[in-house]
Amino acid sequence: MNLHRVELEVFDYNPRAKAMYEKAGFKEEGIKREALYMNNEFHNVYIMSILKKEFMEG
């Protein structure tokens, strides 16, 4: 696939996944504050992405 950009969302209750994406080169672009309600709690959602040139350099 000839993609220019890949984007993902990861929940704040999963810091290990966020760390794995950062290690793979993904950068945090923003936060959807309290965007998920689960088990009587609100959770933030991190938006992350990587560009083709960043992937190729890594």
Automatic annotation (TrEMBL):
InterPro entries, A to Z: Acyl_CoA_acyltransferase, GNAT_dom
Domain annotation N-acetyltransferase: ranges: 1-53
One example GO MF annotation: acyltransferase activity, transferring groups other than amino-acyl groups
Name this polypeptide is given: N-acetyltransferase domain-containing protein
Origin species: Clostridium tertium
